[in-house]
Amino acid sequence: MNFADVPTASVADLPTDGCTLLDVREHDEWSAGHAPGAVHIPLGDLPARVDELARFPDDRPVYVVCRTGGRSAQAAAWLNASGWDAVNVAGGMKSWHTEGRPLVGEHEGAAPEVL
């Protein structure tokens, strides 16, 4: 699969309101810190759980994010080949954090972070 052909957007180009975001990182990465409102489906689980994406609006792209952009490029390529309109988020959650976008975590009392 050629990931060079995957549509890509920078974090700065993402809509600040109503963005459909799919996080394909592993559970520990998600728990440490993720974008509010994102849906979490680890990359390895995506083929088996793709039906969960049916709740996403079908008139907007699905922005796919991981830590730095590699896994999300794989997921976006697979989703596009499966008929979805998917866009890889360049730089992943590292860029999300650098851009000052909000983070939430699952660990009580700990500040959210990007692992």
Automatic annotation (TrEMBL):
Recorded superkingdom: Bacteria
Domain Rhodanese: 15-105
Any GO molecular function: transferase activity
Name this polypeptide is given: Rhodanese-related sulfurtransferase
Keywords, comma-separated and alphabetical: Transferase
Matching SUPFAM superfamilies: Rhodanese/Cell cycle control phosphatase (SSF52821)
InterPro entries: GlpE_sulfurtransferase, Rhodanese-like_dom, Rhodanese-like_dom_sf
